[in-house]
Structures are given as structure tokens and as C-alpha cells.
Write a structure and sequence with these properties.
By secondary structure, this protein is mainly α. The chain is built from 5 helices and 4 strands.
Length: 152
């Protein structure tokens, strides 16, 4: 998608939902896919618009987090960390807030499965255990309300 987005020139309006520190990507891909099927816009422009919209939401929330927490570092991880456009957008925000910006090396810019597994190991080592029968998906679970005893 990044390669096609580089060829895009026209920003097509797509759903942009940011409320405080929360963002919603729900419907973004569906809207872009629907427009692609209709054929009203070039695929390059839709990829460009999808990327710009999603990354703008992430960048806005990151900037708000820096402003509220006054942290001095931003670390971009996961598969999307390989995307040069997102790197550029977050680097600008970090610079504006006098924060150091880092990106994981490309060979580590992959799916977050390993990071999720490592978090599970840390939780287990610190006594946070949930029996499978008590586990569930918490759709409105806020990460700022999660107990993280391994960070002091």
C-alpha cells in the first residue's frame, strides 16, 4: 500500500475519528474499499488517502500523549514501523515536543505477536494470571487502566 500511496495526489475524504486519546479505525478500510469498488477514484489516491487519514489519527493521539505526559521519547514498533510516511509524521511531532524519536530496526518491524507474548511472560512472572475460563475480550478496556507491576 505504501508504494501505491506514494503515487497518490488527491486526498479523498475518509472517516476520521479521534476523541481525546482514543481513535477509531472502524469503517476506514470499508469506506476506502467501497470507493475503490465504485471506481470513482484512482487506487493510488485511495491508498494515499487511507494512509494519510490513519496516520494522521495516530499522529494526533501521539502528539496529545506527548503534551499531556511530557515524555521525552517516542518509539515506533510493529509492522507499520517500516512505513516511511508514518516515521516522518511522528518524527515531526517528536521534534516539536523536544522528544527523541526512535524506530525499531527494519528486521524487527513485524507483527506485534512477539511483543504481546513477551508482555504475557512479564505478567506471569509478576503473578498476573487469568484462568482461561475467566478470560474474555474487553472491547472498552483502556490501556491506561491496566496494572503493569514490572514498570517502576
Amino acid at each position: 500500500m505504501e508504494k501505491l500511496a506514494l503515487k497518490g495526489k488527491t486526498l479523498v475524504p475518509l472517516p476520521y475519528v479521534v476523541k481525546g486519546m482514543d481513535l477509531s479505525l472502524s469503517g476506514l478500510l470499508t469506506a476506502a474499499s467501497t470507493l475503490a469498488i465504485k471506481g470513482d477514484f484512482a487506487l493510488d489516491d485511495l491508498c494515499y488517502s487511507l494512509q494519510e487519514t490513519a496516520f494522521s489519527m495516530v499522529t494526533e493521539v501521539t502528539e496529545r500523549a506527548l503534551a499531556h505526559t511530557e515524555k521525552k521519547e517516542v518509539l515506533l514498533t510493529g509492522g507499520v514501523a517500516a512505513n516511511k510516511r508514518l516515521q516522518s509524521m511522528l518524527a515531526i511531532v517528536a521534534e516539536d515536543h523536544a522528544a527523541r524519536f526512535n524506530v525499531v530496526p527494519l528486521q524487527f518491524a513485524t507483527d506485534n505477536g512477539a511483543m504481546i507474548a513477551w508482555t504475557g511472560v512479564l505478567a506471569y512472572k509478576h503473578g498476573l494470571v487469568t484462568p482461561i475460563e475467566d478470560s474474555s475480550v474487553k472491547l472498552r478496556w483502556r490501556v491506561d487502566k491496566v496494572d503493569v507491576p514490572w514498570i517502576t
